[in-house]
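Hi C.,

You asked whether I'd gotten around to modeling the 53-residue construct. I have! Everything is below, sequence then structure, no commentary in between.
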Amino acid sequence: MCRPTTCEVCGKTTWKGCGKHIDSVKEQVPPDQWCDKNHTDEEYAAAEKSSLN
């Protein structure tokens, strides 16, 4: 079962789980607060670096 979680890159809501229930998670979140995971490599690198500190 999928559940909401916070994106470590942008702080918006995304999903965690099996992937079969993403739509049911997405229905609970306003569109402007949903993370589409469309981040640049630089954004991913910055998030990873800040999580190590």
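If it helps when you're writing up: The beta strands are 3-6, 13-16.

Thanks,
B.
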